[in-house]
From TrEMBL:
Domain of life where this protein originates: Eukaryota
One Pfam entry name: LRR_6
The protein's name in its UniProt record: NACHT, LRR and PYD domains-containing protein 7
A cellular component annotation (GO) from this entry: cytoplasm
Gene: NLRP7
Alphabetical list of SUPFAM superfamilies matching this protein: RNI-like
GO biological process: regulation of inflammatory response
Amino acid sequence: PPNVPDPGSGGSVHGDKMLLLLLCEILKHPRCNLQYLRLGSCSDTTWQWADFSSALKVNQSLKCLDLTASEFLDAGVKLLCLTLRHPKCVLQKLSLENCQLTEACCKELSSALIVNQRLTHLCLAKNDLGDGGVKTLCEGLSYPECQLQTLVLSHCNINRHGCKYISKLLQGDSSLTSLDLGFNPIATGLCFLYEALKKPNCNLKCLGLWGCPITPFSCQHLASALVSSRSLETLDLGQDAWGQSGIVVLLKA
């Protein structure tokens, strides 16, 4: 590609930095038909992420982007969100798992989700978003313009209050049909989720509670939600300490 340093010419650009520069030029090429791209564990400066985001605005083929374990940080997400808001962005699935993100990036993400009409899958697992970040995300997800269907929030340090925000979202007209809350300390907030599942306008089909602290007592409320829910089809309860009494209650349901 033109204007790209020769990989063997030496200089200050090496390794993954050179790869990203080359990739940006490839993505801008009109004959590029790449649909899935994974850039795991990529470490780059903000200006290089800016160049990459610019390339995504030009590319019209890439549907799935996986940036798992990249040093994207909140500053990188801000640049990416500018791309997501661009009318020519065609991304449908995006993974920012373990990218050292915090609550600070959620406002930009929330805004992008409102504007973007194509993104249906977003993974934010293993980022310390907390209840504040979840609240901001839910504000964006509650807009009818948002078309997101799958949201992965496992290992995001979500507590009771986060569950309340999610419950309110699910009881609205949200397009969300798949939600993963695995490995979050949400024991006292599960009751809010169960109440949301009982509502006739809840569209959730898949719920992941893997590794969440579900007690035998909580199983009674879960069983009631399973009987009442009109939409739920898949429920992941792996590594949860139900106890024998909890299992009996769920089996009856």
